[in-house]
Amino acid sequence: MPAAEVMPEKSLEGKRVHVWETAAPPLPKRLEGKVAIVTGGARGIGEATVQVFARHGAKVVVADVEDVDGESLAARLGPSVSFVHCDVREEADIERLVDRTVARHGRLDVFCSNAGVLGRQAPRSDLSIAALDAEEFDEVMRVNVRGAALGMKHAARAMVPRRAGCIISVASVAGVMGGMGPHAYAASKHAVVGLTTNAACELGKHGIRVNCVSPFGVATRMLVNAWREVEVEDEHVDPADAPPTAEEVEKTEEMVRGLANLKGVTLTARDVAEAILYLASDESRYVSGHNLVVDGGVTTSRNLIGLPLVTLVYPLYASVKAIESKSPEDDQQWLTYCVLYSLVTLFDGATFIYENFVRPMVLNQQTLNLWSLSSKSGTFGKPDDVLLAAEKFIEQNGTEAFEKLISKAGGLSNPKKNMHATFHDDRDDREENESWKMNRLAWESSS
């Protein structure tokens, strides 16, 4: 640290004080001299992690199946970063990755297991557990769980003799609470959290720390592609592999912001990488077996509509433009549950769903036609009758009245009772409106 410079004495409220000024020391490189591996390091959170690690002085090995992106990243960041092709589904690849890293750099200090997949996300995929695709489930588990487990295995093999090192896996909020992702993905991320705590119990006696991070939605290529609407012009390019457009990224970020608990901040891959940096550095030297949740408080808040977000809402979001080309029966279930969840979620959630999904579809003639299919008899609690009621209400009272109704209905556990009460609350204002009377009588007769 540079020597302090003594400044002339100055008076302050009659007292004589010495004012000291020192030049601010440069920020330390938190991974200086360390060697790190980042799987899935060519894109998204992995790429951001590689950049942050390199900036803090680490020698980083990028491991990925995306050779072009991985080699390009290594070339941009300079000689401290190298690329190795690695498919985490194959144990031989992971074993070779660790062996080459130790042979080149003499050690392995940090293993970041980031490689992962979300699973098949065709816009009209049936995401219910009853329609679970066993092969797809196995593939997601093979990448997300088997890959992470094999990474821990071979990282430990290199770290145990030195009695030092840390292993960090990228999990997800889908591994913290239910309803945050497709079933295979959620199961895989719960498994990663379990692997983390179990491995931490074993490896702690060898001086090795094992942790994971669980981020909320980040507008990476994987998440953007989950509800991609654009068509790729090149027929030889898989739409799921095409780089996201700026518009798609902004749309994804906007949706995540709408569901976030912490307002005024947009979660980025860099934010997650900084959390990983903390777990990789000596600043967390006594942290092990921990799942660092990077979600702005989403998992502690009741404002999130988790289940509709991934299992119901984003298939809607991705397929609004495709309504005309699909059968009415195929689309009706999504419209039904969209309205149902609007009526039973919290106020913020109901408003968000209405503004972003219900209202645009209400203004679409095709969806109005689809709503006419929902005329089956039954109690109010059934989705078909919720949809029928919404259709008739909008037809007779307009979308603004429907919006008001949803706002009042949000948050109560008994939507039938709540809607019944809402009609009575407004009877003074609507007494002269014949269509409103008809609606009220219809609701009361179904009570």
From TrEMBL:
Region (Disordered) location: 412-435
InterPro entries: ABA2-like, NAD(P)-bd_dom_sf, SDR_fam, TB2_DP1_HVA22
Keywords for the protein's UniProt record, in alphabetical order: Oxidoreductase
Superkingdom, taxonomy of origin: Eukaryota
MF (Gene Ontology): oxidoreductase activity, acting on the CH-OH group of donors, NAD or NADP as acceptor
Keyword Oxidoreductase among record annotations: yes
UniProt family annotation: Belongs to the short-chain dehydrogenases/reductases (SDR) family.
Name recorded for this polypeptide: Uncharacterized protein
Gene source species: Zingiber officinale
